[in-house]
Design goal:
heterodimer; A: about 525 residues; alpha/beta; 2-enoyl-CoA Hydratase, Chain A, domain 1; seven-stranded mixed beta sheet; B: mainly beta; OB fold (Dihydrolipoamide Acetyltransferase, E2P); four-stranded antiparallel beta sheet
Protein backbone atom coordinates (compact mmCIF):
# COMPACT_ATOMS: atom_id res chain seq x y z
CA UNK A 1 0.00 0.00 0.00
CA UNK A 2 1.24 3.38 -0.91
CA UNK A 3 0.02 6.80 -2.03
CA UNK A 4 -0.58 6.81 -5.75
CA UNK A 5 2.14 8.14 -8.00
CA UNK A 6 -0.47 10.30 -9.65
CA UNK A 7 -1.23 12.16 -6.43
CA UNK A 8 2.44 12.85 -5.76
CA UNK A 9 2.90 14.18 -9.24
CA UNK A 10 -0.22 16.29 -9.03
CA UNK A 11 0.97 18.00 -5.84
CA UNK A 12 4.42 18.54 -7.28
CA UNK A 13 2.92 20.08 -10.40
CA UNK A 14 0.69 22.39 -8.39
CA UNK A 15 3.60 23.46 -6.21
CA UNK A 16 5.84 24.19 -9.15
CA UNK A 17 3.16 26.25 -10.81
CA UNK A 18 2.68 28.44 -7.74
CA UNK A 19 6.40 28.71 -7.06
CA UNK A 20 7.03 30.04 -10.54
CA UNK A 21 4.76 33.00 -9.71
CA UNK A 22 4.00 35.03 -12.82
CA UNK A 23 6.24 32.72 -14.86
CA UNK A 24 9.97 32.35 -15.52
CA UNK A 25 9.99 35.17 -18.09
CA UNK A 26 8.66 37.79 -15.70
CA UNK A 27 11.05 36.63 -13.00
CA UNK A 28 13.97 36.76 -15.45
CA UNK A 29 12.96 40.30 -16.37
CA UNK A 30 13.06 41.27 -12.70
CA UNK A 31 16.50 39.74 -12.33
CA UNK A 32 17.65 41.82 -15.28
CA UNK A 33 16.39 44.90 -13.42
CA UNK A 34 18.34 43.87 -10.34
CA UNK A 35 15.20 42.83 -8.47
CA UNK A 36 14.56 39.53 -6.74
CA UNK A 37 11.36 37.48 -6.87
CA UNK A 38 9.01 37.44 -3.87
CA UNK A 39 10.16 34.03 -2.62
CA UNK A 40 13.83 34.82 -3.17
CA UNK A 41 13.42 37.81 -0.87
CA UNK A 42 11.95 35.67 1.90
CA UNK A 43 14.70 33.09 1.43
CA UNK A 44 17.22 35.81 2.26
CA UNK A 45 15.43 36.67 5.51
CA UNK A 46 14.98 33.15 6.88
CA UNK A 47 17.39 30.49 8.04
CA UNK A 48 17.81 27.90 5.29
CA UNK A 49 14.80 25.65 4.64
CA UNK A 50 12.86 26.92 7.67
CA UNK A 51 10.16 28.83 5.80
CA UNK A 52 6.74 27.16 5.97
CA UNK A 53 4.50 28.70 3.36
CA UNK A 54 0.84 29.31 4.15
CA UNK A 55 -1.97 29.27 1.63
CA UNK A 56 0.12 28.38 -1.39
CA UNK A 57 -2.95 27.06 -3.20
CA UNK A 58 -5.13 30.11 -2.54
CA UNK A 59 -6.74 31.58 -5.66
CA UNK A 60 -8.40 34.93 -6.14
CA UNK A 61 -12.09 35.51 -5.43
CA UNK A 62 -13.01 37.77 -8.33
CA UNK A 63 -15.83 36.93 -10.68
CA UNK A 64 -16.08 40.11 -12.70
CA UNK A 65 -14.31 41.68 -15.68
CA UNK A 66 -13.27 38.29 -17.02
CA UNK A 67 -11.19 37.58 -13.94
CA UNK A 68 -13.09 34.33 -13.35
CA UNK A 69 -11.14 32.80 -16.24
CA UNK A 70 -7.79 33.99 -14.99
CA UNK A 71 -5.54 32.32 -12.44
CA UNK A 72 -3.45 34.29 -9.95
CA UNK A 73 -1.26 31.72 -8.15
CA UNK A 74 -1.22 32.38 -4.41
CA UNK A 75 -3.29 35.48 -5.16
CA UNK A 76 -0.13 37.56 -5.60
CA UNK A 77 1.39 37.18 -2.17
CA UNK A 78 3.65 34.68 -0.41
CA UNK A 79 2.97 34.30 3.32
CA UNK A 80 4.18 32.06 6.09
CA UNK A 81 6.40 31.54 9.09
CA UNK A 82 10.13 30.92 9.13
CA UNK A 83 13.03 31.19 11.53
CA UNK A 84 15.59 33.96 11.89
CA UNK A 85 18.59 33.11 14.08
CA UNK A 86 16.51 30.22 15.40
CA UNK A 87 13.49 32.31 16.38
CA UNK A 88 10.11 32.24 14.57
CA UNK A 89 9.10 35.24 12.45
CA UNK A 90 5.86 35.66 10.46
CA UNK A 91 6.12 37.32 7.05
CA UNK A 92 4.54 38.17 3.74
CA UNK A 93 6.12 39.11 0.43
CA UNK A 94 4.01 40.56 -2.36
CA UNK A 95 4.64 39.07 -5.80
CA UNK A 96 4.62 41.77 -8.44
CA UNK A 97 4.83 39.13 -11.18
CA UNK A 98 1.35 37.88 -10.30
CA UNK A 99 -1.30 40.41 -11.25
CA UNK A 100 1.10 43.20 -10.39
CA UNK A 101 1.09 42.13 -6.75
CA UNK A 102 -2.26 43.91 -6.44
CA UNK A 103 -4.17 43.31 -3.23
CA UNK A 104 -7.46 41.44 -3.47
CA UNK A 105 -9.66 39.96 -0.78
CA UNK A 106 -7.84 36.58 -0.52
CA UNK A 107 -4.44 38.28 -0.74
CA UNK A 108 -5.44 40.42 2.25
CA UNK A 109 -6.78 37.40 4.13
CA UNK A 110 -3.47 35.59 3.69
CA UNK A 111 -1.64 38.57 5.18
CA UNK A 112 -4.17 38.84 8.03
CA UNK A 113 -3.77 35.14 8.84
CA UNK A 114 -0.01 35.44 9.39
CA UNK A 115 -0.52 38.65 11.36
CA UNK A 116 -2.93 36.84 13.68
CA UNK A 117 -0.32 34.10 14.01
CA UNK A 118 2.36 36.68 14.86
CA UNK A 119 0.19 38.18 17.58
CA UNK A 120 -0.94 34.91 19.12
CA UNK A 121 2.45 33.27 18.74
CA UNK A 122 4.31 36.35 20.01
CA UNK A 123 6.65 36.55 17.04
CA UNK A 124 7.92 39.51 14.97
CA UNK A 125 6.08 40.36 11.76
CA UNK A 126 7.88 41.31 8.54
CA UNK A 127 6.16 42.55 5.37
CA UNK A 128 7.81 42.99 1.98
CA UNK A 129 5.74 45.47 -0.04
CA UNK A 130 5.80 45.38 -3.84
CA UNK A 131 2.33 45.98 -5.17
CA UNK A 132 0.46 48.09 -7.67
CA UNK A 133 -2.18 48.73 -5.01
CA UNK A 134 -5.79 47.62 -4.75
CA UNK A 135 -7.07 45.09 -7.29
CA UNK A 136 -9.70 47.31 -8.82
CA UNK A 137 -11.69 44.37 -10.21
CA UNK A 138 -12.44 43.39 -6.61
CA UNK A 139 -13.65 46.88 -5.74
CA UNK A 140 -14.66 47.44 -2.10
CA UNK A 141 -13.60 43.92 -1.12
CA UNK A 142 -10.07 44.98 -1.87
CA UNK A 143 -10.47 48.22 0.04
CA UNK A 144 -11.87 46.29 2.99
CA UNK A 145 -8.81 44.04 2.81
CA UNK A 146 -6.57 47.03 3.44
CA UNK A 147 -8.71 48.04 6.40
CA UNK A 148 -8.35 44.59 7.93
CA UNK A 149 -4.57 44.73 7.55
CA UNK A 150 -4.41 48.23 9.10
CA UNK A 151 -6.51 47.09 12.06
CA UNK A 152 -4.13 44.22 12.72
CA UNK A 153 -1.07 46.49 12.38
CA UNK A 154 -2.52 48.42 15.31
CA UNK A 155 -3.32 45.25 17.30
CA UNK A 156 0.25 44.05 16.83
CA UNK A 157 1.75 47.44 17.66
CA UNK A 158 3.65 47.27 20.94
CA UNK A 159 3.08 43.49 21.23
CA UNK A 160 5.47 42.23 18.54
CA UNK A 161 8.02 44.14 16.45
CA UNK A 162 6.74 45.00 12.95
CA UNK A 163 9.23 45.60 10.14
CA UNK A 164 8.23 46.73 6.65
CA UNK A 165 10.34 46.58 3.51
CA UNK A 166 9.39 48.84 0.60
CA UNK A 167 10.89 47.01 -2.37
CA UNK A 168 8.63 48.21 -5.19
CA UNK A 169 5.53 50.31 -5.52
CA UNK A 170 3.62 51.18 -2.40
CA UNK A 171 1.16 53.92 -3.25
CA UNK A 172 -1.93 55.57 -1.88
CA UNK A 173 -3.72 53.80 0.94
CA UNK A 174 -1.31 50.87 0.68
CA UNK A 175 1.36 53.10 2.24
CA UNK A 176 -0.57 53.22 5.49
CA UNK A 177 0.14 49.64 6.47
CA UNK A 178 3.91 50.23 6.46
CA UNK A 179 3.28 53.58 8.14
CA UNK A 180 1.71 51.73 11.06
CA UNK A 181 4.74 49.47 11.46
CA UNK A 182 7.79 50.12 13.65
CA UNK A 183 10.64 50.23 11.14
CA UNK A 184 10.68 50.71 7.38
CA UNK A 185 13.49 49.73 5.04
CA UNK A 186 13.36 51.04 1.48
CA UNK A 187 15.47 50.05 -1.49
CA UNK A 188 17.33 52.90 -3.16
CA UNK A 189 16.23 52.17 -6.72
CA UNK A 190 12.93 50.83 -8.03
CA UNK A 191 10.85 51.57 -4.94
CA UNK A 192 8.33 54.34 -4.41
CA UNK A 193 6.10 55.27 -1.52
CA UNK A 194 3.63 58.14 -1.67
CA UNK A 195 -0.05 59.02 -1.18
CA UNK A 196 -0.62 61.25 -4.20
CA UNK A 197 1.77 60.94 -7.12
CA UNK A 198 3.23 63.74 -9.27
CA UNK A 199 0.30 63.63 -11.73
CA UNK A 200 -2.32 64.11 -9.02
CA UNK A 201 -0.25 66.81 -7.34
CA UNK A 202 0.09 68.60 -10.66
CA UNK A 203 -3.64 68.31 -11.41
CA UNK A 204 -4.77 69.50 -8.00
CA UNK A 205 -2.15 72.06 -7.01
CA UNK A 206 -0.47 72.94 -10.30
CA UNK A 207 2.94 72.20 -8.76
CA UNK A 208 5.45 70.22 -10.79
CA UNK A 209 7.44 67.61 -8.91
CA UNK A 210 9.27 64.40 -9.68
CA UNK A 211 8.59 60.96 -8.23
CA UNK A 212 12.07 61.07 -6.71
CA UNK A 213 11.23 64.27 -4.82
CA UNK A 214 8.07 62.94 -3.19
CA UNK A 215 8.22 59.17 -3.22
CA UNK A 216 11.83 58.07 -3.60
CA UNK A 217 13.91 56.44 -0.90
CA UNK A 218 16.03 59.55 -0.26
CA UNK A 219 13.01 61.84 0.18
CA UNK A 220 11.25 59.35 2.45
CA UNK A 221 14.36 58.76 4.55
CA UNK A 222 15.69 62.30 4.90
CA UNK A 223 12.89 64.85 4.43
CA UNK A 224 9.68 63.21 5.66
CA UNK A 225 11.31 60.62 7.92
CA UNK A 226 8.78 57.96 6.84
CA UNK A 227 11.58 55.49 6.22
CA UNK A 228 14.23 54.40 8.72
CA UNK A 229 16.79 52.62 6.56
CA UNK A 230 17.85 52.92 2.92
CA UNK A 231 19.05 49.67 1.34
CA UNK A 232 21.25 49.48 -1.74
CA UNK A 233 19.20 46.60 -3.16
CA UNK A 234 16.90 43.71 -2.19
CA UNK A 235 19.75 41.66 -0.77
CA UNK A 236 20.91 44.53 1.45
CA UNK A 237 17.32 45.21 2.58
CA UNK A 238 16.86 41.63 3.78
CA UNK A 239 20.23 41.80 5.53
CA UNK A 240 19.03 44.88 7.44
CA UNK A 241 15.87 42.97 8.49
CA UNK A 242 18.00 40.21 10.01
CA UNK A 243 20.41 42.67 11.61
CA UNK A 244 17.54 44.63 13.16
CA UNK A 245 15.85 41.48 14.48
CA UNK A 246 19.12 40.51 16.19
CA UNK A 247 18.61 43.38 18.67
CA UNK A 248 14.89 42.83 19.31
CA UNK A 249 12.89 40.51 21.56
CA UNK A 250 10.23 38.38 19.88
CA UNK A 251 7.50 40.19 21.77
CA UNK A 252 6.81 42.66 24.56
CA UNK A 253 6.88 40.13 27.41
CA UNK A 254 10.37 38.93 26.55
CA UNK A 255 13.70 40.61 27.10
CA UNK A 256 15.84 41.52 24.12
CA UNK A 257 18.44 38.89 23.16
CA UNK A 258 21.15 40.03 25.59
CA UNK A 259 24.33 37.97 25.45
CA UNK A 260 26.26 39.51 28.35
CA UNK A 261 29.98 38.91 28.39
CA UNK A 262 31.31 36.96 31.39
CA UNK A 263 33.34 39.94 32.50
CA UNK A 264 32.59 43.63 32.32
CA UNK A 265 35.47 45.47 30.71
CA UNK A 266 36.54 48.28 33.06
CA UNK A 267 39.66 49.28 31.13
CA UNK A 268 40.06 53.00 30.61
CA UNK A 269 40.25 54.50 27.12
CA UNK A 270 42.46 57.59 27.12
CA UNK A 271 41.46 58.46 23.56
CA UNK A 272 38.09 59.60 24.95
CA UNK A 273 39.89 62.34 26.91
CA UNK A 274 41.50 63.51 23.67
CA UNK A 275 38.19 63.80 21.82
CA UNK A 276 37.10 66.83 23.77
CA UNK A 277 37.89 70.21 22.20
CA UNK A 278 39.82 72.48 24.56
CA UNK A 279 37.50 75.37 23.65
CA UNK A 280 33.98 74.88 25.06
CA UNK A 281 32.73 76.45 21.82
CA UNK A 282 34.45 73.81 19.69
CA UNK A 283 32.32 71.01 18.28
CA UNK A 284 32.69 67.32 18.94
CA UNK A 285 31.58 64.48 16.67
CA UNK A 286 29.34 62.26 18.79
CA UNK A 287 29.96 59.25 16.53
CA UNK A 288 33.53 59.24 17.88
CA UNK A 289 32.15 58.79 21.40
CA UNK A 290 29.59 56.16 20.37
CA UNK A 291 32.25 54.12 18.60
CA UNK A 292 34.30 53.96 21.80
CA UNK A 293 31.36 53.06 24.04
CA UNK A 294 29.66 50.24 22.11
CA UNK A 295 31.02 46.80 21.21
CA UNK A 296 32.96 46.77 17.89
CA UNK A 297 30.53 46.99 14.94
CA UNK A 298 27.54 46.62 17.24
CA UNK A 299 25.71 49.82 16.52
CA UNK A 300 22.75 49.79 14.13
CA UNK A 301 21.77 53.37 13.50
CA UNK A 302 18.07 54.05 12.91
CA UNK A 303 16.84 57.06 10.90
CA UNK A 304 20.40 58.03 9.96
CA UNK A 305 19.37 60.48 7.25
CA UNK A 306 16.53 62.14 9.17
CA UNK A 307 17.18 64.87 11.76
CA UNK A 308 20.92 64.08 12.02
CA UNK A 309 21.25 66.48 14.97
CA UNK A 310 20.03 63.55 17.08
CA UNK A 311 21.50 60.07 16.69
CA UNK A 312 19.45 57.01 17.66
CA UNK A 313 20.12 53.31 17.23
CA UNK A 314 20.52 49.87 18.74
CA UNK A 315 23.80 48.84 20.29
CA UNK A 316 25.44 46.19 22.40
CA UNK A 317 27.64 47.11 25.34
CA UNK A 318 29.57 44.09 26.64
CA UNK A 319 26.86 42.06 24.93
CA UNK A 320 23.90 43.81 26.56
CA UNK A 321 21.36 45.28 24.11
CA UNK A 322 20.62 48.97 24.55
CA UNK A 323 18.81 51.74 22.72
CA UNK A 324 21.20 54.64 22.29
CA UNK A 325 20.06 58.26 21.99
CA UNK A 326 22.70 60.98 21.50
CA UNK A 327 22.81 64.63 20.53
CA UNK A 328 25.10 65.32 17.57
CA UNK A 329 26.76 68.71 18.18
CA UNK A 330 28.34 68.76 14.72
CA UNK A 331 24.87 69.16 13.14
CA UNK A 332 22.77 72.20 14.11
CA UNK A 333 24.92 72.41 17.25
CA UNK A 334 23.05 69.32 18.49
CA UNK A 335 19.99 71.44 19.27
CA UNK A 336 16.64 69.69 19.55
CA UNK A 337 14.22 70.72 16.80
CA UNK A 338 10.83 69.41 15.69
CA UNK A 339 12.14 66.52 13.60
CA UNK A 340 14.76 65.48 16.16
CA UNK A 341 12.12 65.42 18.90
CA UNK A 342 9.78 63.27 16.82
CA UNK A 343 12.62 60.92 15.92
CA UNK A 344 13.88 60.60 19.48
CA UNK A 345 10.46 60.16 21.09
CA UNK A 346 9.45 57.46 18.65
CA UNK A 347 12.63 55.49 19.23
CA UNK A 348 12.41 55.81 23.02
CA UNK A 349 8.83 54.54 22.99
CA UNK A 350 9.78 51.57 20.84
CA UNK A 351 12.58 50.64 23.26
CA UNK A 352 10.28 51.00 26.25
CA UNK A 353 7.59 48.83 24.65
CA UNK A 354 10.13 46.07 24.01
CA UNK A 355 12.12 46.19 27.26
CA UNK A 356 15.25 47.63 25.72
CA UNK A 357 17.31 49.73 28.20
CA UNK A 358 18.06 53.31 27.22
CA UNK A 359 21.51 54.90 27.20
CA UNK A 360 21.46 58.66 26.57
CA UNK A 361 24.54 60.71 25.62
CA UNK A 362 23.87 64.41 26.15
CA UNK A 363 25.47 67.42 24.45
CA UNK A 364 22.54 69.76 23.91
CA UNK A 365 22.64 73.57 23.81
CA UNK A 366 18.85 74.00 23.77
CA UNK A 367 15.78 73.79 21.62
CA UNK A 368 16.44 75.33 18.21
CA UNK A 369 15.26 78.96 18.03
CA UNK A 370 13.37 80.10 14.93
CA UNK A 371 10.03 81.28 13.58
CA UNK A 372 9.51 78.03 11.66
CA UNK A 373 10.21 76.00 14.80
CA UNK A 374 7.79 77.96 16.97
CA UNK A 375 5.05 78.04 14.34
CA UNK A 376 5.67 74.40 13.52
CA UNK A 377 4.93 73.50 17.12
CA UNK A 378 8.31 72.86 18.76
CA UNK A 379 6.44 73.09 22.08
CA UNK A 380 4.21 70.10 21.43
CA UNK A 381 6.87 68.20 19.47
CA UNK A 382 9.58 68.84 22.07
CA UNK A 383 7.12 67.72 24.73
CA UNK A 384 7.15 64.27 23.11
CA UNK A 385 10.74 63.82 24.29
CA UNK A 386 9.75 64.64 27.87
CA UNK A 387 6.70 62.40 27.62
CA UNK A 388 8.58 59.48 26.10
CA UNK A 389 11.43 59.52 28.64
CA UNK A 390 9.19 60.14 31.65
CA UNK A 391 6.86 57.29 30.70
CA UNK A 392 9.69 54.83 30.01
CA UNK A 393 10.12 52.24 32.76
CA UNK A 394 13.11 50.41 31.25
CA UNK A 395 16.59 51.04 32.71
CA UNK A 396 17.62 54.61 31.88
CA UNK A 397 21.31 55.57 32.03
CA UNK A 398 22.40 59.10 31.08
CA UNK A 399 25.84 60.59 30.42
CA UNK A 400 26.21 64.36 30.13
CA UNK A 401 29.31 65.01 28.06
CA UNK A 402 29.28 68.78 27.59
CA UNK A 403 26.27 71.04 27.15
CA UNK A 404 23.00 70.46 28.98
CA UNK A 405 20.98 73.63 29.00
CA UNK A 406 17.49 74.50 30.13
CA UNK A 407 14.47 72.53 29.00
CA UNK A 408 16.52 70.51 26.55
CA UNK A 409 18.67 69.23 29.45
CA UNK A 410 15.50 68.01 31.17
CA UNK A 411 14.29 66.46 27.89
CA UNK A 412 17.47 64.39 27.49
CA UNK A 413 16.58 61.93 30.26
CA UNK A 414 17.56 63.98 33.29
CA UNK A 415 17.41 62.69 36.85
CA UNK A 416 14.09 64.50 37.21
CA UNK A 417 12.54 62.35 34.46
CA UNK A 418 13.65 59.39 36.59
CA UNK A 419 16.87 58.40 34.91
CA UNK A 420 18.27 55.64 37.10
CA UNK A 421 21.81 57.00 36.95
CA UNK A 422 23.20 60.22 35.50
CA UNK A 423 26.93 60.51 34.93
CA UNK A 424 28.74 63.66 33.86
CA UNK A 425 32.15 64.44 32.45
CA UNK A 426 34.05 67.31 34.12
CA UNK A 427 33.37 69.25 30.90
CA UNK A 428 29.59 69.12 31.50
CA UNK A 429 27.80 72.47 31.58
CA UNK A 430 24.49 71.97 33.35
CA UNK A 431 22.66 75.27 33.61
CA UNK A 432 19.35 76.95 33.02
CA UNK A 433 20.79 79.04 30.17
CA UNK A 434 24.06 80.09 28.55
CA UNK A 435 26.32 82.74 30.07
CA UNK A 436 25.49 85.37 27.41
CA UNK A 437 21.75 85.16 27.95
CA UNK A 438 21.96 84.83 31.72
CA UNK A 439 24.23 87.87 32.16
CA UNK A 440 21.94 90.03 30.03
CA UNK A 441 19.00 89.17 32.26
CA UNK A 442 20.76 89.19 35.64
CA UNK A 443 22.82 92.36 35.15
CA UNK A 444 20.62 94.42 32.82
CA UNK A 445 20.89 97.58 34.92
CA UNK A 446 24.60 97.25 35.69
CA UNK A 447 25.38 96.72 32.01
CA UNK A 448 23.27 99.72 30.97
CA UNK A 449 25.11 102.00 33.38
CA UNK A 450 28.65 100.67 32.83
CA UNK A 451 31.20 102.78 30.97
CA UNK A 452 33.02 99.85 29.39
CA UNK A 453 30.05 97.57 28.66
CA UNK A 454 32.04 94.97 26.74
CA UNK A 455 34.62 94.53 29.49
CA UNK A 456 31.98 94.23 32.19
CA UNK A 457 29.95 91.82 30.10
CA UNK A 458 32.98 89.61 29.53
CA UNK A 459 33.90 89.67 33.23
CA UNK A 460 30.35 88.80 34.34
CA UNK A 461 30.04 86.06 31.74
CA UNK A 462 33.29 84.50 32.90
CA UNK A 463 32.11 84.58 36.52
CA UNK A 464 28.85 82.92 35.48
CA UNK A 465 30.68 80.26 33.46
CA UNK A 466 33.10 79.47 36.30
CA UNK A 467 30.27 78.99 38.74
CA UNK A 468 27.47 77.48 36.64
CA UNK A 469 28.96 76.00 33.45
CA UNK A 470 30.17 72.88 35.24
CA UNK A 471 28.73 69.62 36.53
CA UNK A 472 29.48 70.48 40.16
CA UNK A 473 26.56 72.84 40.84
CA UNK A 474 24.10 70.13 39.70
CA UNK A 475 26.17 67.46 41.49
CA UNK A 476 26.05 69.45 44.74
CA UNK A 477 22.26 69.30 44.55
CA UNK A 478 22.35 65.53 44.13
CA UNK A 479 21.23 65.63 40.50
CA UNK A 480 24.26 63.70 39.27
CA UNK A 481 25.15 60.14 40.25
CA UNK A 482 28.85 60.78 39.72
CA UNK A 483 31.32 62.91 37.80
CA UNK A 484 33.58 60.59 35.80
CA UNK A 485 36.63 60.93 33.58
CA UNK A 486 35.84 60.54 29.89
CA UNK A 487 38.35 57.68 29.78
CA UNK A 488 36.21 55.72 32.28
CA UNK A 489 33.02 56.08 30.21
CA UNK A 490 32.72 52.65 28.67
CA UNK A 491 33.24 50.71 31.87
CA UNK A 492 30.98 53.00 33.91
CA UNK A 493 28.11 52.75 31.42
CA UNK A 494 28.53 49.00 31.00
CA UNK A 495 28.50 48.41 34.74
CA UNK A 496 25.50 50.68 35.27
CA UNK A 497 23.59 48.97 32.49
CA UNK A 498 24.37 45.51 33.84
CA UNK A 499 23.33 46.53 37.35
CA UNK A 500 19.98 47.88 36.21
CA UNK A 501 18.96 44.93 33.99
CA UNK A 502 16.73 43.54 36.71
CA UNK A 503 14.90 46.88 37.16
CA UNK A 504 11.17 46.55 37.68
CA UNK A 505 8.95 49.59 37.91
CA UNK A 506 5.16 49.69 37.95
CA UNK A 507 2.92 52.68 37.33
CA UNK A 508 -0.77 53.27 38.06
CA UNK A 509 -2.90 51.37 35.52
CA UNK A 510 -4.62 53.40 32.81
CA UNK A 511 -5.86 52.87 29.27
CA UNK A 512 -2.99 54.88 27.85
CA UNK A 513 -1.22 58.16 28.40
CA UNK A 514 -1.83 61.05 26.06
CA UNK A 515 1.41 61.89 24.31
CA UNK A 516 1.10 65.32 22.64
CA UNK A 517 0.72 64.22 18.99
CA UNK B 1 -8.47 45.06 -19.17
CA UNK B 2 -11.38 45.99 -21.42
CA UNK B 3 -14.12 43.86 -22.90
CA UNK B 4 -14.94 44.88 -26.45
CA UNK B 5 -17.32 43.57 -29.12
CA UNK B 6 -16.07 43.67 -32.69
CA UNK B 7 -18.51 43.16 -35.51
CA UNK B 8 -17.20 42.14 -38.94
CA UNK B 9 -19.88 41.84 -41.54
CA UNK B 10 -22.77 40.26 -39.64
CA UNK B 11 -20.63 38.35 -37.21
CA UNK B 12 -19.81 39.66 -33.69
CA UNK B 13 -16.72 38.72 -31.73
CA UNK B 14 -16.42 39.30 -27.98
CA UNK B 15 -12.81 40.11 -27.20
CA UNK B 16 -10.84 41.09 -24.10
CA UNK B 17 -8.16 43.72 -24.60
CA UNK B 18 -5.22 44.04 -22.30
CA UNK B 19 -3.08 47.17 -22.54
CA UNK B 20 0.47 45.85 -22.33
CA UNK B 21 2.01 49.32 -22.21
CA UNK B 22 0.70 49.77 -18.67
CA UNK B 23 3.08 48.47 -16.01
CA UNK B 24 0.27 46.85 -14.07
CA UNK B 25 -3.16 46.50 -15.61
CA UNK B 26 -4.75 44.96 -12.53
CA UNK B 27 -4.24 47.63 -10.02
CA UNK B 28 -4.42 51.23 -8.95
CA UNK B 29 -3.54 52.97 -5.70
CA UNK B 30 -6.51 52.23 -3.44
CA UNK B 31 -7.13 55.51 -1.74
CA UNK B 32 -5.21 58.19 -3.56
CA UNK B 33 -7.70 60.97 -3.97
CA UNK B 34 -8.55 61.66 -7.58
CA UNK B 35 -8.34 65.25 -8.78
CA UNK B 36 -12.12 65.59 -8.83
CA UNK B 37 -12.77 64.86 -5.18
CA UNK B 38 -9.71 66.50 -3.69
CA UNK B 39 -9.51 69.99 -2.27
CA UNK B 40 -9.60 72.83 -4.78
CA UNK B 41 -6.25 74.27 -5.80
CA UNK B 42 -5.01 77.07 -3.58
CA UNK B 43 -5.47 80.65 -4.72
CA UNK B 44 -2.80 81.81 -7.14
CA UNK B 45 -1.47 84.39 -4.69
CA UNK B 46 -1.03 81.95 -1.81
CA UNK B 47 2.50 82.28 -0.41
CA UNK B 48 4.90 79.53 -1.34
CA UNK B 49 5.69 77.65 1.86
CA UNK B 50 8.94 75.82 1.23
CA UNK B 51 11.32 77.75 3.44
CA UNK B 52 14.10 75.26 4.00
CA UNK B 53 14.80 74.03 0.48
CA UNK B 54 18.15 75.10 -0.99
CA UNK B 55 17.85 78.20 -3.12
CA UNK B 56 20.04 77.04 -5.97
CA UNK B 57 21.53 73.74 -6.99
CA UNK B 58 24.97 74.53 -5.59
CA UNK B 59 23.94 76.81 -2.76
CA UNK B 60 25.29 76.06 0.71
CA UNK B 61 22.76 77.45 3.17
CA UNK B 62 22.85 78.13 6.88
CA UNK B 63 21.31 75.29 8.92
CA UNK B 64 20.19 77.73 11.63
CA UNK B 65 20.22 81.38 12.62
CA UNK B 66 23.57 82.68 13.86
CA UNK B 67 26.61 84.94 13.45
CA UNK B 68 29.26 84.42 10.79
CA UNK B 69 32.47 84.10 12.76
CA UNK B 70 34.83 83.49 9.84
CA UNK B 71 34.87 82.46 6.20
CA UNK B 72 37.55 79.89 5.44
CA UNK B 73 37.43 79.83 1.62
CA UNK B 74 37.42 82.32 -1.26
CA UNK B 75 35.82 82.30 -4.69
CA UNK B 76 37.66 79.93 -7.01
CA UNK B 77 38.99 77.66 -4.27
CA UNK B 78 38.77 73.92 -4.82
CA UNK B 79 37.16 72.20 -1.83
CA UNK B 80 36.78 68.58 -0.81
CA UNK B 81 33.57 67.01 0.47
CA UNK B 82 33.34 67.61 4.22
CA UNK B 83 35.84 70.48 4.20
CA UNK B 84 34.96 73.36 6.54
CA UNK B 85 33.78 76.44 4.62
CA UNK B 86 32.35 78.82 7.18
CA UNK B 87 32.32 79.06 10.97
CA UNK B 88 28.86 79.95 12.23
CA UNK B 89 28.52 80.96 15.86
CA UNK B 90 25.16 79.76 17.09
CA UNK B 91 23.73 77.86 20.04
CA UNK B 92 26.81 78.35 22.22
CA UNK B 93 29.08 76.71 19.63
CA UNK B 94 31.32 77.65 16.75
CA UNK B 95 29.75 75.40 14.14
CA UNK B 96 31.66 74.29 11.07
CA UNK B 97 29.60 74.50 7.92
CA UNK B 98 31.13 71.89 5.63
CA UNK B 99 31.01 71.22 1.90
CA UNK B 100 28.21 68.75 1.06
CA UNK B 101 30.08 67.80 -2.15
CA UNK B 102 33.47 68.45 -3.67
CA UNK B 103 33.69 71.39 -6.07
CA UNK B 104 34.99 74.86 -6.59
CA UNK B 105 33.66 77.87 -4.71
CA UNK B 106 31.56 80.04 -7.01
CA UNK B 107 30.60 83.01 -4.91
CA UNK B 108 30.95 83.80 -1.21
CA UNK B 109 27.81 85.57 -0.05
CA UNK B 110 28.61 86.34 3.59
CA UNK B 111 31.40 88.00 5.56
CA UNK B 112 32.47 87.80 9.19
CA UNK B 113 30.07 89.67 11.43
CA UNK B 114 27.00 88.98 9.29
CA UNK B 115 23.90 87.80 11.08
CA UNK B 116 22.18 85.06 9.04
CA UNK B 117 18.87 83.24 9.25
CA UNK B 118 18.13 79.57 8.63
CA UNK B 119 18.22 78.93 4.88
CA UNK B 120 20.40 81.98 4.15
CA UNK B 121 22.80 81.30 1.24
CA UNK B 122 26.35 81.34 2.58
CA UNK B 123 28.19 80.52 -0.63
CA UNK B 124 27.76 78.57 -3.83
CA UNK B 125 29.67 75.52 -5.04
CA UNK B 126 30.12 74.65 -8.69
Amino acid sequence: MSISEQMLKDLEKRRNLVRSGGGPERIAKRHDQGLLAARERLDLIFDRDTFQEWGMHVEHACHDFGMEKKSLPGDGVVTGVGRVDGRPVAAFSQDATVGGGALGQRHAKKICDVMDCALEGGMPFVGVNDSGGARIQEAVESLSGYGQVFYRNVLLSGCVPQIGVIAGNCAGGAAYSPALMDFLIMTRAGANMFICGPQVIKAVTGVDCTMEEIGGAAANASISGNVHFIADDDRHAMHIVRDLLSYLPANNVQNPPHSPTDEICLDTDESLNDLIPSDPKGTMNMYDVIRRVVDPNRFLEVHRDFAPNLIVGFARIDGVVAGLIANQPSVKAGALDIDASDKGARFIRFCNAFNIPLVTLVDVPGFLPGVAQEQGGIIRHGAKMLFAYASATVPKITLITRKAYGGSYLAMCSRDLKADMVFAWPTAEIAVMGAEGAVNVLYRRELAEAEDKAALREKLQQEYRDRFASPYMAASHGMITDVILPSQTRGVLSLALRNMLTKSETRPPKKHGLIPM
Amino acid sequence: MKKLRITIGNKSYDVTVEDLTETNPYSAPPAASSPSDAAPPPAANAPAKRPTLPVGAGAVTSPMAGLIKSVLVSAGDQVKQGQALVILEAMKLENQITAPVAGSVGSVDVKPGDQVQEGHVLLTLE
